[in-house]
Amino acid sequence: MRQEFYGDLYKNTKDNNVKTLGDCYKETEQMKVAILGSVKSNLEHIANKNLVDNSLAIVKAIKEHLVKICIHEHGHLFFLSVLNSMDDTKAIKKSLFDPIYENIEEIIVDKWGRRVIEWFIAPAEKDFIHPHMLKILDEGLKFGKKDKDLRRKEIQEQVEGPLSESIQKFSKLYLKDGHVGLFTASILNKC
């Protein structure tokens, strides 16, 4: 089966003397360029199949660790880059925001967790995230198909209702101290 990667010559007939790629062109050095070109072409074809959507695979892998990622100093940046690059906004709400919303009390008391929630409401807001970090996050946008403003607006529309309900439900927590109070004011301004 491996020989089929080496070119059309081996698709119809198998050579028992060929066990590795080097064996293909050991006797005929002129075939080396053609065989390596064929191997490269076949491997590129396989790699570009996109059988699994990378962003959805990442989301499934991190789902059980979302709270820890959101409140981690560097993990929240990883999470923001995933949010910023996913095109499927309904999947973002269902797979990412809903589990976070279940643990909202734990997330909003942490400064890194507040950044994640702020990104849902006001993505790319320079008041919350350093401009250099925004530049790095925007580099991931070149892989998305959807316009960034449209994606961000759709996310905001989906989460503003649940966040408003959360503020009503846990009002003491949202007004606990100065940092959380400013965070709450920014949510109320955007919703």
TrEMBL record:
One GO cellular component assignment for this chain's record is:
nucleolus
The CPL domain is annotated at 109-190
Q: Where are the bilayer-spanning segments?
A: none
Cite the InterPro entries for this sequence: ARM-like, ARM-type_fold, CPL_dom, PUM3
Q: Which Gene3D superfamilies match?
A: Leucine-rich Repeat Variant
What GO MF annotations does this protein's record show?
A: mRNA binding
- Any Pfam family matching the protein: CPL
BP GO terms, sorted: regulation of translation
Q: Which organism is it from?
A: Megaselia scalaris (Humpbacked fly)
Q: What is this protein called?
A: CPL domain-containing protein
Entry keywords, A to Z:
RNA-binding
